[in-house]
Structure of UDP-glucose 6-dehydrogenase:
Amino acid sequence: MRVTVFGTGYVGLVTGACLADVGHRVMCMDIDEGKIARLKAGEIPIHEPGLDTIVERNVKSGYLEFTTSHRDAVAHAELQIVAVGTPPDETGAADLQHVQAVAEAIGAHMTAPKIVVVKSTVPVGTCDKVAGRLAAVLGGRGSDIGFEVVSNPEFLKEGAAVGDFQRPDRIIVGTNSAHARAVMAELYEPFNRNHDRMVYMAPRSSELTKYAANAMLATRISFINEIANLAERLGADIEQVRRGIGSDPRIGYQFIYPGVGYGGSCFPKDVKALARTAREAGYGASLIEAVEAVNSRQKMKLFEKIAAHFGGEAALQGKTIAIWGLAFKPNTDDMREAPSRVLMEALWAAGAAVRAFDPVAGAETLRLYGERPGFELVQDKYSALDGADALAICTEWQQFRAPDFGEMALRLANRVIFDGRNLYSPERLRDDGWTYFSIGRAT
Ligand code: UGA
């Protein structure tokens, strides 16, 4: 089958590469010429495990092509997948200009019927808007050349996107057209051989499914963080409570890890966008708004603990805090909405300096904060501790789970750790002479 994918970000590139890998002939289009030139040369612009080999293999075999030409992209296939970005605009709403620009390009260049598949995360009603825009661009030609607009949201996790695409829990297809449904079934047939994962519904239900899934997961995180904050005040241990509730299969163990709040390009943006959509629909979504409020507060948690330990914000002037982990979660270099940023910015505002280490997000952090006084990036986790007054852990990279505490004690004279991911046993650290703060557990 032939497929065109617009947008070569996380979603577009993973989608294009994985579809080519099962034998579809895929053309990926992006307006960023530099990016397309790098992709053609085999350079992957993002850190996503496994993606580079799949791209390389399929570029070599000719199943995966890249272009900056709208004309070629539209001519390539009946199926036109839209995976361009929908960043929040200045009001917090999803900015649809890139999606609409693709719709216009498709309308301008199409000479045969098309199925336009909206994979970008878009507010409910966007498929209808895209259909409206296409019809307007096509004008009189519209009656001769038909089109369908289908919603097909993605559920990929950064760092595990390739596996998530190849082994999906479900494939949501929002369409009322029997033809589009048949074409989508054929597209995803290689992923449905052992078990049919297709779930068909109306486009608006499909669009809302995406937001509901992310809002539900974000709710679990804010819920456990709220219980953790309560546990601290009541003398309970959130890790024991987590195990206690997770054993109920209706609750389950996933997504109830307390921490420094959720980050990334999806949860924060989607939760805010859903709250906004609700307001626009005349409904105050109190639960969803609270999920966001709890998360913003949680991102300040480590800073508050650090300030309290040293005797108030003013006492942080001139202190140096080592930070382990900058990315919003392990196995990615993504710094978007990362809790580490809130911590670092609060530390700088209080006059403290930061010596930070992250296994892969260093370069991205330098791009963001390289010029900033009070910021130093180091190349290994132990050097971050040299001369620091305390260590703060923001991301649970594997290599932080069992560090050499002897080596750490030599470098970090104060022996103070603020652990935002509950990586260590408080008893063990206390017995070894550390002052150890974590989330939702007694100090
Ligand atoms: C998320 C969803 O998990 C995907 O299903 C979805 O497709 C994607 O958003 C999207 O909309 O594109 P992602 O943003 O890659 O994926 O990250 P997650 O692995 O879900 O983690 C999100 C944040 O929640 C991280 O900051 C993580 O540290 C935090 N988290 C997660 C917790 O604090 N506690 C948990 O128990 C789980």
Q: What stands out?
A: The pocket of uridine-5'-diphosphate-glucuronic acid is lined by residues 121, 154-158, 214, 217, 221, 255-257, 259, 262-264, 266-267, 328-329 (CB under 6 Å). The mean pLDDT is 95.
